[in-house]
Design goal:
Blueprint lengths: L3 E5 L3 H12 L3 E5 L3 H8 L10 H5 L5 E3 L10 E4 L11 H10 L8 E4 L7 H9 L2 E4 L9 H6 L4 E5 L2 H11 L7 E5 L9
Parallel strand pairs: 1-2, 1-4, 2-3, 4-5, 5-6, 7-8
Antiparallel strand pairs: 6-7
């Protein structure tokens, strides 16, 4: 099954995520706040180097935009800004929440790939009124595309069983040996 994704943040994490989802035959629209990055991508130039990424990202099916209005037509919004693990300010996440709020509906699912602190996904769910999935990045530079498409295992946390079902369908084509799914309501003290 094919879904529509809106990937926010077109540096290492966002480019790899977009390329991988495109390779899995999902429809991918990519967004970044920096017009220089979007210009490069529209000219089929990667802002970073990653083996095999060009083939997965520039096959003509991925679009690059700075127009948030396209959010209203997608199934998933993926927040994929590269962030340091110890970044506790989350300024870019706060900006994203404020900017996308007018275009989001309760049927959409927000996927957070950026490294964020405990409680940030709860905040996103509360502010936007839709389900959230935390699917943390695991980038090994130079082999990130291979790792995305050939994971040994996948871990994600979800705000509802519905999200877990969707994520399994989205990622079912990957050669996954194990999927670890944590349902928030089953672990009352855990926050995604």
């Amino acid at each position: 099954m094919s879904y529509k994704f809106f990937i926010m943040g077109m540096w290492h994490l966002g480019c790899v995520t977009a390329g991988g989802l495109n390779y899995l035959k999902h429809k991918v629209t990519c967004f970044d706040y920096d017009p220089r990055i979007l210009k490069k991508l529209n000219d089929k130039q990667l802002p970073i180097y990653e083996k095999e990424l060009s083939d997965k990202l520039f096959d003509g099916n991925v679009t690059f935009t700075n127009d948030l209005k396209e959010l209203s037509t997608v199934d998933f919004v993926c927040i994929a800004f590269d962030m340091e693990a110890n970044n506790v300010t989350h300024n870019i996440i706060d900006k994203v929440i404020a900017d996308i709020k007018p275009y989001i509906n309760e049927k959409q699912i927000i996927i957070v790939r950026s490294q964020v602190s405990v409680g940030v996904c709860d905040k996103i769910q509360k502010e936007l009124g839709c389900d959230v999935c935390y699917f943390p990045e695991n980038l090994r530079l130079g082999v990130a595309v291979y790792d995305f498409l050939n994971p040994n295992w996948i871990v994600f946390g979800v705000s509802s069983p519905r999200v877990g079902t969707f994520m399994r369908v989205v990622l079912e084509e990957l050669m996954v040996t194990q999927i670890c799914l944590t349902l928030k309501e089953e672990i009352g003290r855990a926050h995604v």
